[in-house]
C-alpha cells in the first residue's frame, strides 16, 4: 500500500511498469480490442497503435477516438491509424498468388474424352471415305485394263506416263480434258481463296500448291503473318468456348466430386 501511495504522481503506464504489470496489461488490452473488433464484424487489422505498441486496429475505421476515463482519473490508451495497411497487404498477397489449377483426375478424364473423340472421328471418316476410295481403285484398274486390251499398240508404260503427265497438269491448275483454251482452273478466285484459308489455319487440306518460285515465296510470307493473325481470332473463339466447356466441366466435377 505504501508503494502504491508513493506512486500517485506517476501516470497509469508508469505505475504498471513499476509494479511489473505493464506487459500483462498490454496483452489484456490487445485481447479486449481484438475481441471487440471481431465482434463488430471487422476481420482485417492494420498495424499497432502508437501508444499500445502492438494493438492492431482495422483500416476501415477513420480514426481512433479516446475511450472514456476509467476510475475517473486515467484515460485508456489512445489509438492511431497507420497510413500503410501492412497486415492487410500481407494477408491479401497469398490470396492474389493463388491460381486455379485443374486436378489430375480432371486432366486424365479430358484426355480420355479427346482420345475417344479422335477415335470416333477416325471411324466416321473411314466409313465415309474408304468405300469410295476402294471403288475408285477398282474402276481405274478396270479402265486401264480395257484400254490396253482395245489398243494393243500402246504399252502399259506409255499409258502410265500419259496418266502421270495428266496428273501433273491437273496439280498445276491445268485441266487435261479438252483443249488449252479450257477456262477451268485450280487457281480461280474461289480455289485461291480456299487455299489461302488452308495456309493461315494450318489445316493443310487440299491437293494444290504453288508451282512457281514467286508463288512459293509469297506463300511463306503470307503464312508468317497470316498464322498469328488467325491465332488471335482463334484465341478469342477459344475463350468463349472455354467458358462454355468450363461450366460443363464444373458440373461434371460437382457430380463426381472432383474438386477443381
UniProtKB/TrEMBL annotation:
Membrane topology: Multi-pass membrane protein
Official protein name in the record: Potassium channel subfamily K member 10
Cell cycle keyword on record: no
Keywords noted in UniProt: Cell membrane, Disulfide bond, Ion channel, Ion transport, Membrane, Potassium, Transmembrane, Transmembrane helix, Transport
Highest taxon, organism lineage: Eukaryota
Domain called Potassium channel: residue spans: 181-240
Reaction(s) this enzyme catalyzes, per UniProt: Rb(+)(in) = Rb(+)(out); Cs(+)(in) = Cs(+)(out); K(+)(in) = K(+)(out)
One MF annotation (Gene Ontology) recorded for this entry: potassium channel activity
